[in-house]
Amino acid sequence: MAFIDYYKILDVSKNATEKEIKTAYRKLARKYHPDLNPDNKNAEVKFKEINEANEVLSDPENRKKYDKYGEDWKHGEANEKAQSQYQSQYRSGQQGSSNQEYSDFFESMFGGRRTSYGQSRNPIFKGQDYQTELHLDLRDVYTSEQQILTVNDKKIRLTIPAGVENGQVIKIKDKGAPGINGGPNGDLYIKFHINNHTHFKREGNNLYKNVSLDLYTSILGGEITVDTFNGKVKLDIKPGTKNESKVKLKGKGFPVYKHEGKFGDLIITYHIKIPTDLSEKEIALFKELQKIKAR
């Protein structure tokens, strides 16, 4: 399980030229630009990832560091330099104040332990963090469910709380790479991509759904049955219901993340259907109504 790959995000090889990277970025940026994808959170997340990848790979120095140090490219060079200096001073056995000051600095950064005699043991390091993506359907995160992930040939069982949002990142403590010299394990970061194949639109904890309403029921009123995310409900339609009027079904939305038993709302918008293929009798009745209305 590896960190998010900037080359993969731009869909280019690691040997791609600057021109190929620039071309790939422009193509994807146009495709996922927020102005061309209004109200599309998936596109917004993708657009941010594309820009982040381009900022690193389009800069020769940043790209060189990224290729060498991977996800820790921002700090890898400094860490390597600090470790080299530390090891050099440790081997020389210097005991001066400058060595003392550096050792304290090194310990604060990397967790190096000291003995009671002031001599440093082998420094300890936290293990590398892992990052991965998990693709799920919207219905998969309506209830809490268990997933088994494989990290470096080890299976990790985790419970995904209901209500996880698209683009959300959660941390699983101590499930990264092992620490060095007894240091703590790294952490596992999981980024969720939630695909929606339902007739519902999700915004936060609320769900939105369009419901067709025939002209006669909208005028005279009546009762209809509609689908919610977890079942059907009956709704009373008031006489004279207007097109695109809305009704809120409290607590029929999506689960609130890490708040068991708490849900958002379902907002239904009525769309009135105009009748077609009328019979002669129906046309005659509408004409009669037209005359009555005109009096």
Let me know the largest β-sheet.
Answer: 4 strands, mixed
Shape: elongated
Mean pLDDT equals: 83
User: CA-to-CA gap between the ends?
Assistant: 76 Å
Would you kindly provide a brief summary of this structure?
The chain has 295 residues and is an alpha+beta fold.
Commentary on this structure:
This protein is of the alpha+beta class and 295 residues long. Among the domains are: 72 residues, Sandwich (HSP40/DNAj peptide-binding domain); 94 residues, Sandwich (HSP40/DNAj peptide-binding domain). The chain contains 8 helices and 11 strands. α4 crosses α5 and α5 packs antiparallel against α6.
Write the layout of secondary structure elements.
Blueprint: H1 6-10, H2 18-32, H3 41-57, H4 60-69, H5 73-92, H6 97-110, E1 130-137, E2 145-151, E3 154-160, E4 169-172, E5 188-195, E6 201-203, E7 206-214, H7 215-220, E8 222-228, E9 231-237, E10 246-249, E11 266-273, H8 280-294
Parallel strand pairs: 1-5, 7-11
Antiparallel strand pairs: 2-3, 4-5, 6-7, 8-9, 10-11
Helix pairs in contact: 2-3, 4-5, 5-6
Key attributes of the depicted protein:
four-stranded mixed beta sheet, 35% helix, HSP40/DNAj peptide-binding domain, 8 helices, alpha+beta, three-stranded mixed beta sheet, elongated, 295 residues, 11 strands
